[in-house]
Amino acid sequence: MKRLRLARRSLILRLVGLSLLLLLIVQAAGFAVVRASIDRNARAQIARALDLDENIWRRLLDQNAEQLRQGSALLAADYGFRSAVNSGDEETIQSVLENHGSRIGAAVTALLGTDLTLRAVSLTGSMDQFPATLQQVVPRLAQQPQGSQIAVMDGVPYQFVMVPMRAPVVIGWVLMGFRIDQSRADEMRQLLSVHVALMVKAPGGALSLPVSTLPADAQALLLASGGAAGELQTAEGTLLARSSPLDSVGGEVHSLLLRSVDEVVAPYRQLQVLLAIITVAGVLLFAVGTGLVAQRLATPLRSLLAATQRLSRGEYDVPLEHTDRTDEIGNLARSFDHMRVDIGAQQTEIRRLAYWDRLTGLPNRERFRDAVVQAIAGSASTPQPLAVLTLDLDRFKHVNDVLGYAFGDRLLQAVAERLSQQVLSPDDMVARLGGNEFAILLQRADAADAHDIAQRINQSFEEPLAFEDQTVDLSAGIGFACWPGDAGDADTLLSRSEIAMYAAKRKLSGALQYDAAFDSSSAQTLSLLTELRHAVEHHELRLYLQPKVPLHGQPGLAAEALVRWQHPQRGLVPPMQFIPFAEQTGFVRQLTLWMFEEVARLLADPRTQGLPLRVSVNLSTRDLLDPELSHRLAEILVRHGVAASAFCLEITESAIMDDPQRAEAMLNRLSEQGFKLSIDDFGTGYSSLAYLKRLPVDELKIDKSFVMGMETGEDDAMIVRSTIDLAHNLGLTVVAEGVETAAIQDRLRALACDEAQGYHIARPLPVDDFLAWQARQV
Known about the structure:
GO terms for molecular function: cyclic-guanylate-specific phosphodiesterase activity. One of its GO terms (biological process) is signal transduction. The chain is an alpha/beta fold. The protein is about 55% helix and about 20% strand. It has an 8-stranded mixed beta barrel with strand order 19-20-22-23-24-25-26-27. The chain has a 6-stranded mixed sheet with strand order 2-1-5-4-3-10, sandwiched between helices. It has a 5-stranded antiparallel sheet with strand order 7-6-11-9-8, with helices on both faces. Helix 7 crosses helix 8 (about 330-355), helix 10 runs antiparallel to helix 11 and helix 16 (about 590-605) runs parallel beside helix 18. The chain is flat.
């Protein structure tokens, strides 16, 4: 009995203690939230005040500049001064400058000639830096006569204005400079209770505060922090600083506005104290009430403790006690008993869902991985090859967006059924990994077997799916990896199969086996990015040009720019070994800029300036989606002094269709700059004619697969003929690549193709060889 009373007291104490702990946590969290909210609101209030302060401070500087202009205009309008300027009376000019500058408190008063050279000047103090400052200030003020210019001389900021002297034409310029002194800052401090400081950074890096309303210790802290905007802990408390750079010469000038956080937060502290008192009283009342309630609940709940422990052990077949009671405890017991039955059923369902996809009925990713692990383990003693195929449906998101998710679910079920029909062995497995991604485990299958299965899947997808009145064309990117050749364990095998699948989708290829070149994390390509950067920095890349010749005697000379890598150890690295990697890692943008830079340098070369040369440069998807591309290309054009019209930018259809809106916007900007635009590999992508009509392109480039097939297949010849007619009807020129024989070239000429490119004409040539080849064509 004593032990029962101790257990009851312990339960009551735990309930009361837990309740109080939770209450204290909530209250502490509330205090923290209130404190943080007060601090955040105070800082937001100060930020808004600093916005207003900054506007007023700039307005004060503008008013000061306007007063300077008025004083300068008064001097420029003085009849006697103009007469002295016209007559060249230097003594009178000097006297007037000194008198007028002294009268209005100007530090510098100067007369400039019509050519903006200094004729006379009146200075307050030595101002050794005035001649150098004059050379920087005058050109800027000449460009904006209604503005002002701040200049730093001997560590002090001055505000300069310049007005013309007319009689009635301009006979000179009056330049005045006034020191930005403490009075403006004191005025801001008195009006708005905000601290103002002007920080000057000399060309040597030294910092000074020639104007400041801060106390001496705060000024020292501000200088020590380098004037960075943010918080400043001073004897007065925390100050929030707003830094605003001023356009200046002779040194950097920043205006700093500072307000105290403590002044804004102080009124809220009393409210927090009152809230703390109320919280303590509430905790005491809550403790008493919770203790009474816990004492009444503890006794009947103990009888359910053993039953709940059985539930926690997974014993769902034992009914709970107290289900016959009619009070709340009975309701609780019956609820627990219902929960016992439901949990037992749910556990069975969970075990099923853990390994099976509910929509398609196929194994899921976890079940598929376990099957691969078991297959590899079973083949370890008697090695037999196995393969994993991964496929991802093309444009599935578009199906969901247009036809709805219910239609997309039916499509996935139909795909699962078709894939299951392609698996003939009962030991093989089809699984849905998630979304629109599926996988197939092929036991006792090598690379050739896996490729055959992939081809059968592609052939099965050639038949569209029809649901009611909707028909959907299927296609997918398929990649596969084989054990043990491509991977040594299950996770690596699955990963490399997915890598091959993504490579197949990028290349629009039906099926691809894993290759280390696809994988930026493989041992072969692990150091390739570093080596590519080294190649760009150490001039290992080479520019090659492949000529493009007109087929109907049109004037002009064209070529396509290509890159080659002369590696110091590997020798000449083929482009296919580093271009796909560069596209995958994003380094292709650096290669594109290198290519553009080299072509611009070639076009600026004296050897090519007399030639009507137009060079084509390829742009990748990453290039086209780079918002800074047009600015970077414009900088290169300006640096080398070449025209954008000398370039033709080639973009593939797939690059445009990855993000049509952003691609179209960038193409419009490039076209407005004067670049000629060409659609490369036309006919191999997914672009529609309606979309193509909107693009600002000038040229279509027929993919070489169609051109090379003209000799053996009439289908390819028909495609080439149709493409040429389409392009001409749209007002575009046509280039055919892959011209390997004279017969193909003659046939293209008969089809009215504009230009041709291929090994029959010339292979890609280094720059010097290209120029020599061109000289031989004349």
